[in-house]
Amino acid sequence: RIIVVATNNKHKLKEIKEILNDFEILPSSAVVDSFNPEESGKTFCENSLIKAKSLAEFTDYPVLADDSGLEVFSLNGEPGVYSSRYSKTGKDEDNLKKLIERLKGKKDRSARFSCCMSLVVDGNVIQREGYVYGRIIDRPIGENGFGYDPVFVPDGYDITFAQMSPKQKNAISHRRRALAMIKEELERIYG
Ligand code: ITT
């Protein structure tokens, strides 16, 4: 039950390992030296498929790719597929700054995290999407997680993803919701 994950993001890899804990998860470096396909898609599913297919060229193991991001409703879905490259530097800290700036004075601060997982197995493609809804606060709080976690408060909670333990975040995240459905398919394939 080996799966290769097509990501360069170590935080994603850690969460995927925690969620798919009864599979053996390998990083892309297990099958290829460097891996950096151009994410030219307009949707999370297009981009995760680009990543999964391009790594699948180097291995016969099943390949899983995650494309994800934050969509803020009053900003017409920004940063969306540009979440990791929202600011000029693309650093988490600068991305957060830009988002907080863009939301200044906006009443509607509702948002969602989206994740599209693409799984390539024996040339077949399986895609599943997961979402978690919440709101964006006006300053970062919390040390855990990555990316926009310090400003995202999921519905039904009064703490950010970055204030949650990995276990708490992984129980309700967009990534978890997409992976729960991928897991069903994997169980069906592998038994
Ligand atoms: P790979 O393409 O190598 O997988 P990446 O970080 O470039 O890594 P994406 O293009 O999918 O991945 O961008 C995802 C960005 O969305 C990520 O860098 C964060 O800024 C944000 N994001 C996604 N999931 C998140 C989460 O669980 N918590 C906080 N931010 C998240």
TrEMBL record:
The UniProt record lists the keyword Metal-binding: yes
Gene Ontology CC entries for this record: cytosol
Entry's cofactor comment: Binds 1 Mg(2+) ion per subunit.
EC number(s) per entry: 3.6.1.66
Cofactor (UniProt): Mg(2+)
Keyword terms: Hydrolase, Magnesium, Metal-binding, Nucleotide metabolism, Nucleotide-binding
Binding site for substrate: T7, N8, N9, K10, H11, K12, S68, F146, G147, Y148, D149, K169, H174, R175
Gene3D superfamilies: 3.90.950.10
NCBIfam families registered for this protein in UniProt: RdgB/HAM1 family non-canonical purine NTP pyrophosphatase
Name recorded for this polypeptide: dITP/XTP pyrophosphatase
Species of origin: Hippea maritima (strain ATCC 700847 / DSM 10411 / MH2)
